[in-house]
Design brief:
Elements: E1 3-8, H1 13-22, E2 28-34, H2 37-51, E3 56-59, H3 67-73, E4 78-81, H4 92-100, E5 103-106, H5 111-116, H6 121-127, E6 130-133, H7 137-149, E7 153-164, H8 172-178, E8 185-190, E9 193-198, E10 204-208, E11 212-218, H9 223-231, E12 235-241, H10 245-259, H11 266-280, E13 288-298, E14 303-312, H12 319-333, E15 341-344, H13 351-358, E16 364-370
Parallel strand pairs: 1-2, 1-4, 2-3, 4-5, 5-6, 6-15, 7-12
Antiparallel strand pairs: 7-13, 8-9, 10-11, 11-12, 13-14, 14-16
Length: about 375
């Protein structure tokens, strides 16, 4: 049986990647949606030419009240929502899916959006649908990477992780989203207690395998709420940074200006930094990575540390957040059905399923190192 999947925002930065994978996926019939008719048609033509498959489309506002009817008329069975930024966005798309009896996942990495999706849990269960938020680098992939090695630990005390992107700029909406908390308090965990840091502050240099030294700073992600209960960790932190050190410093300076009240609205500055980034991206090396450091007690009762790094070459970094949804769609097309309810998307896919979805070993590689030399 064919799974009819609609990608909301199918011609956007991440939606294009998801669509490119799904249009050639066995057992999937792809439908892409967006509000710009010309961009939508260009993407449909591109996908059809690339795959030789028939990709359908719907032009309209998925946030609007008529979306429920569209899902029914087009016989959609699964929606992948890629239309960020999710910071401050309503749950209109997810609610339409519940009302239409359609399963849903999104690529949000907004902490409030992902953790707040549980407000729809009762309605989703009553409708018998899965509403999964955060089907992206965080928390889906980050949790899968830890889950894969969880058996090596008797106890996990500390999880420090982050992302260093390449210099290639994402879409403007992504930049607007990640700068939304510049200079604002972020709740992390230190020694089991809530500890506040400021967004895009506390610049840190980290040496990363294959990538040299990168500049990282505090960023807010859903993992800060999810990992304490999931793994029992007492210390949680997350940092991120751009491929060029100049980008990290620019974000830091904007955060300082926001904190001091010199800048009140981050959106005009996000647009300026995005334009500058497009000019400077030619100076980048095309490398990006997600890293996870886990510290705790091993199964033998001795201290144990784990370092995981997923590295992308040749500006393939955007595949990392995009392909969690691709992996989930592939699993569903093969017969998997998540439990009904609205929740963060963790524990739904494995690392092996994720890597199979990307299927690009020349450009994406996973390295795992333990302090005891095993594994």
């Amino acid at each position: 049986m064919t799974l009819r999947v609609m990608v909301v925002g199918g011609y956007g930065n991440f939606g294009s990647i998801v669509s490119r994978h799904l249009v050639v996926m066995p057992g999937v019939q792809l439908v892409i949606s967006g509000r710009d008719a010309q961009k939508l048609q260009r993407k449909v033509d591109e996908l059809n030419a690339r795959s030789g498959m028939a990709c359908e489309s719907w032009c309209g506002d998925a946030m609007g009240p008529g979306f429920k009817s569209v899902l029914g008329l087009m016989n959609i069975q699964w929606v992948i929502h890629t239309g960020g930024p999710f910071q401050g966005q309503s749950y209109a798309v997810a609610e339409s899916c519940i009302d239409a009896g359609v399963n849903y996942c999104d690529l949000s990495d907004s902490r409030a959006f992902v953790t707040g999706i549980s407000a729809l849990d009762t309605r989703a269960k009553q409708a018998g649908v899965a509403i999964l938020s955060g089907c992206s680098s965080v928390p889906t992939l980050s949790a899968a990477l830890i889950d894969q090695q969880r058996h090596r630990f008797k106890r996990i005390d500390t999880i420090e992780h982050g992302i260093s992107s390449s210099a290639k700029m994402p879409g403007l909406s992504t930049v607007e989203g990640v700068l939304a908390y510049a200079g604002k308090p972020i709740k992390q965990l230190r020694n089991g207690r809530v500890h506040e840091v400021l967004g895009w502050q506390d610049l840190t240099l980290r040496r990363m395998r294959y990538m040299g030294t990168r500049v990282l700073a505090n960023v807010d992600v859903p993992d800060m709420d999810i990992f304490a209960s999931r793994y029992g960790a007492l210390n949680l932190s997350f940092k991120a940074g751009a491929g060029l050190k100049l980008g990290g410093i620019a974000n830091y300076l904007l955060a300082q200006a926001m904190r001091m009240g010199l800048v009140r609205d981050h959106l005009p500055w996000a647009a300026r930094l995005h334009r500058c980034g497009l000019w400077f991206e030619r100076l980048g090396d095309g490398k990006s990575a997600m890293y996870i450091d886990v510290h705790g007690i091993g199964a033998d009762g001795e201290p144990l540390s784990l370092n995981v790094q997923l590295t992308a070459m040749n500006d393939k970094g955007p595949e990392i957040p995009s392909c969690a949804a691709v992996a989930l769609a592939a699993k569903v097309a093969q017969g998997y059905l998540p439990e009904p309810g609205a929740r963060a998307c963790v524990g739904e896919i494995t690392v092996d399923e994720y890597m199979a979805a990307i299927n690009d070993p020349q450009n994406l590689s996973l390295s795992v190192h333990f302090s005891d030399g095993q594994g």
